[in-house]
Amino acid sequence: MTLRPTDSSALLIDGKLVPGSGGMFEVIDPATEHRIGYAAEGTETDMDTAIAAARRAFDDTGWSRDHAFRARCLRQLRDALRSHLEELREITIAEAGAPRLLTAGPQLEGPVTDLGYFADLAESYSWETDLGVASPMGIRTRRRVLKEAVGVVGAITPWNFPHQINFAKIGPALAAGNTVVLKPAPDTPWCAALVGAVIAEETDIPPGVMNIVTSTDHRLGAQLARDPRVDLISFTGSTATGRAVMATAAESLKKVFLELGGKSAFVVLDDADLDAACALAAFTVCTHAGQGCAITTRLLVPRARYDEAVAATARTLSGIRPGDPTAPGTVCGPLISARQRERVEGYLRLAVDEGGEIVVGGGRPAEHDRGFFVEPTLIAGLDNSSRVAQEEIFGPVLVVLPHDGDDDAVRIANDSPYGLSGSVWGRDPDRVRRVVDGIRTGTLGVNGGIWYAADAPFGGYKQSGIGREMGVAGFEEYLETKLVAEPAN
Ligand code: NAD
Predict the structure, then answer these.
(1) What is the pairing mode between strands 465-466 and 255-259?
(2) Catalytic status, residue 44
């Protein structure tokens, strides 16, 4: 089969590719603002059918108990996706505005490969642990701990890294023996729907085990969260929506797994190579136009070297122009939508209103008359209490803040409702370690270390989320624990 965008105009429900009962909706290329096609408009009726199919597949088949079969299916899916990499790449660039460069890593190839990691876990995981014999209340008893799938997983995902986030849910959820209903973001329906076409036509994943409902209707996410047939909600998106999802899921007391927003700190200590650190901080915030929850968006530098740091960061930022995501060298592509661009531009105006200085950028790049581009922007002259330092902007915007030493840097890094990621730069390992220990966040890179990998747990402290994705910890989010006790001789 050859994947074409037209294959993306179907939902995957109960093993079949079916049209959305709401018709179709437009898919827009954020770099050109052109309509590039249509996706299936799922409705509440479609979602209801998908949940019923997932429930049946979990309750009435051996899927959750056949670890080897699931591992085989996941490897089959990985291999089938690999055979479609080039088609998927073009679609990801066109639909998400993802720079081509990133599709060799976390925007496509990395997450496809990671499916193999979860397949391996299905086979190697200790599904049963013998706790040995004990004599509670004087009765000799042998106890075993069984790990089992939770049941039906409702996966709700955003648009910024569609494959990474979809597969970081589908991979462990299926490997652990669950069945899944995926509701991707309205901005990136094709990335999910094409995976649905591959599942239906090129894998042995049984009907109902994996369902995908694309839609512009956010209420379908709430429907998944509310439905008592769904046992677990795995959500990635904004903190505000995560809060709503958790409240809705509370009605049926289902397990909730949340990956939310961030405002992560890039901490430069006074013994660090300031130029190298500032250059990396600037480059990082331009990656995928800053549309990454774990991107470091607050640069904390020693007060005595503040001006020097602003100049070094500005040099790198002014050298990175937002560009055509199809071009091989582009790092900073467009924002996903006009709405998102307006939101980012609102924050740029706010920075000025708050008394800040826009050192670099601050507007739309003159060289693009179409596309939702924003210039890489550096904001200086504000402290950490400003709204642009506290709120997630989700664009190529870096706020540079002064600190008065290691303890103050830790205090500022922690003075945030979020705690998703971060970076620490310094030469003295003991000082670096104290700062690492002090920052309340889920992932930290030290001196440029990369924390992203299939076996590396990722997630947030505080309002950045609940639970961990990826790694064994991410797999175990999709498991229940059953204790079995029987008389021992
Ligand atoms: P969003 O919260 O607007 O939407 C995410 C998903 O939730 C979409 O599929 C949407 O349709 C659905 N949704 C919307 N309202 C809902 C409701 N009431 N109930 C259930 N589902 C609902 O987020 P977005 O704008 O698509 O993505 C950007 C946000 O995602 C940023 O805040 C970013 O930080 C966050 N994000 C977090 C991570 C992470 O792992 N922590 C990763 C990527 C993005």
Answers:
(1) antiparallel
(2) no
Distance CA 365, CA 271 (A): 36
Domain ranges of the chain: 5-260+464-486, 264-453
Is the per-residue pLDDT at 339 higher than 70? yes
> Which CATH fold topology does 264-453 show?
Aldehyde Dehydrogenase; Chain A, domain 2 (3.40.309)
Q: Can you tell me whether residue 208 is helix, strand or coil?
A: coil
Rounded distance from Cα 241 to ligand 1 centre (Å): 6
* 28 contacts 337 by C-beta, under 8 angstroms: yes
Measured between alpha carbons, how far is 467 from 173 in angstroms, rounded to an integer? 14
Pocket test for ligand 1, best of 156, 164, 181 (most atoms within 8 A of CB): 156
Does the beta carbon of 216 sit less than 6 angstroms from any atom of ligand 1?
no
**Residue among 73, 191, 278, 293 flagged as catalytic:** 293
Closest by Cα among 283, 293, 336 to 313: 283
Residue closest by Cα to atom 34 of ligand 1: 261
Mind listing the pLDDT tens digit for each residue in 354-370? Answer: 999 999 999 999 999 99
The pTM is what?
A: 0.97
